[in-house]
Amino acid sequence: MMKKIRICVCDNHALFREGVKAVLRAEPSIEIAGEAADGKDALELIGRVEPDIALVGISLPVLRGYDVAERVSRDHEKTRVIILTVYDDEDMVARCLDAGAAGYVLKDTSPGQLLYAITWMGASVPQPEVRSTPDIEVLSAKWKMVVRPGLV
Fold this sequence. Notes:
By secondary structure, the protein is an alpha/beta fold. It has helices spanning about 15-25, 40-50, 65-75, 90-100, 110-120, and strands at about 5-10, 30-35, 55, 80-85, 105, 130, 135-140, 145.
């Protein structure tokens, strides 16, 4: 039996969290380990439940998503942070990846693409081919999904 990918959903919008959890519940290889609405609570949750992946909104109150990513990458090496955002901006992608985020996914991506990013990060599927640039590796067109170099 395959180990489930344990995920925390951390976003300041309750409706968005509920929508993401509904998508995740439909995937048998994923287990929802918890949720948080701000950066401080996200760090506490991640430290307590030690998920494989934390989906983290970039605009969390108290601590921004990139601040959470930095602390998680430093203090919880086994947890990969995927930033969820509406910011389709190359500088913001770089800022988040430099802070330690393992991935960057736009909130307008399809549920299937989000699940693909999660399962890929959770290493439960063969790793995809990627197109590389000097600074980032793109998993899909138009910056919908980006991973930190070295994860492929």
